[in-house]
Amino acid sequence: MELSFHQVTKFYGPVVGLNEVSFEIGPGITGLFGANGAGKSTLMKLASGQLRPTLGSVSIGELPTWKTSAKHHLGYTPDLDRFYEKMKVRHFLQLIAKLHGFRPVKVKEATEQALHRVGMTDRAEKRLGGCSRGMRQRVQLAQALIHDPEILLLDEPMSGIDPAGRQEITAILRGLASDGKTILLSSHLLQEVEPLAQSILMIARGRLVAAGPLSEIREQLDQEPLTIELISTEPRRLSVACMQMDSVQSVTLQRDRILLRTNQASEFYRDLQATVVAEKFEITRYDVLDAGAEAVFQYLDRRAP
User: Fold this and answer.
1) Lower CB density within 10 Å: C or N end of the chain?
2) pLDDT in tens for each of the 305 residues of the chain?
3) DSSP labels, 178-226
4) For 17-22, which contacts have Cβ atoms below 8 Å and span 24 or more sequence positions?
5) β partners of residue 208
6) Domain boundaries, given as residue ranges, for the chain
7) CATH number at 224-303
């Protein structure tokens, strides 16, 4: 099932929270990135039906997200660490199942299935007040899964979790994606989510500045300065050859390490390939240092109107 935004604008009085945003996401994991105040929280609230758009439409399938019927297809974890601290994990999830209107037999079945999905079955009798941050995040995810929705909206699910906990959450999310769930994951931890998300949405100043696989977005920025690291068995000779390329802006030699800047990536790749073949250079390492999500977002944020 798809989550769709069509020409969505949201005003808060005279302030524009979101401006003409359109996208559609389906099964798999999509990462949502944006700086504080970029419109990320507004987008999540519109997607979960907590807000209605001023203009445009937000829908799950054919259903507007603020309709009660749409909520059956949606699971949501807010960026809030709030629980009934004295309640046990299993009892909390049973309460959530009851709030969904499940009958007693279904309450038990749904609770045990959700516990199993997030790996909390063996800790289901633990009180929430005694759970670690990582365990509490898994309980949050379990309550979102209790009614087995097709779409999951996860607001900062990695927040405050140690590296081991992030690995566990990552494994759970990949499993849910492989089951066909549509997952929209909001996060500022770009280095953690970048390898997890199949596609990304980047928000800046209330506008959607990029959408799609990170590699494709990076290709769209072919004219942006790019830093490339080369390590060669003949660094001095290779650095001289690179300086002669029209596609290279600058070259810095650090022992056997060459750092160069180009704003014509496609031309540079062709120039480098031709030079390596013609001069028989041996390159032992080639890295694009600022092709990651953080660097791409900075470029796009500067371009946003």
Assistant:
1) C
2) 899 999 999 999 999 999 999 999 999 999 998 777 788 889 999 999 999 999 999 999 999 999 999 999 999 998 888 899 999 999 999 999 999 999 999 999 999 999 999 999 999 999 999 998 889 999 999 999 999 999 999 998 887 776 677 788 889 999 999 999 999 998 766 666 677 888 989 888 898 988 888 777 766 655 567 788 999 999 999 999 999 999 899 999 998 899 998 877 778 888 998 999 899 998 888 877 765 555 666 666 666 56
3) HTT-EEEEE-S-HHHHTTT-SEEEEEETTEEEEEE-HHHHHHHTTTS-E
4) 17/42, 17/206, 18/42, 18/43, 18/46, 18/53, 18/206, 19/205, 19/206, 19/207, 20/56, 20/207, 21/56, 21/203, 21/206, 21/207, 21/208, 22/56, 22/208
5) 203
6) 3-213, 224-303
7) 3.30.70
Provide the CA 293 distance to its chain's centre, in angstroms.
Answer: 10
Long-range contact pairs involving 37-42 (C-beta distance under 8 Å, separation at least 24): 38/203, 38/204, 38/205, 38/206, 39/203, 39/205, 39/206, 39/207, 40/186, 40/203, 41/155, 42/10, 42/17, 42/18, 42/206
Inter-residue contact 192 to 166 (CB < 8 Å)? yes
Q: Tell me, what amino acid is at 99?
A: L
Side-chain half-sphere CA neighbours of 268 within 13 A: 24
Number of DSSP helices (H) and strands (E) in the chain, helices first? 11, 14
Query: Residue 58: what residue type?
Result: V
Measured torsion, CA atoms of residues 293, 294, 298, 303, in degrees rounded to the nearest 10: 10
Integer Cα distance of 22 and 211 in angstroms:
10
Total-model pTM = 0.75
Phi, psi of 183 (to 5 degrees): -120, 125
Q: How far apart are CA 21 and CA 10, in angstroms?
A: 10
Q: Which CATH superfamily is domain 3-213 in?
A: P-loop containing nucleotide triphosphate hydrolases (3.40.50.300)
Q: How many CB atoms lie within 10 A of CB 250?
A: 12
